[in-house]
Amino acid sequence: MxxxxxxxxxxxxxxxxxxxxxxxxxxxxxxKIEDGQINKEYNNGQIVLVTRQDSPHA
Length: 58
Description:
By secondary structure, the protein is α+β, with helices and mostly antiparallel strands. It has one helix spanning 2-24; strands at residues 28-32, 38-42, 47-49. It has one helix and three strands, in the order αβββ. β2 and β3 (47-49) form a beta hairpin.
C-alpha cells in the first residue's frame, strides 16, 4: 500500500513542478482528465479545452 501512496505523491509533485515551470516560462501545461478531454492550463488559472483544430496531435 505504501508504494501506491508514494507513487501518488510523486505524480502530484511532478504536476506541481510542471505548474511552477510553466509560470516561470510564461507558458502552459497540458493534461488529460478522466473523461479523455485534453486541457491547456495557463499560469493565470485559465483553462482551455484543446480541440482537434487546435492541435493535430490532440
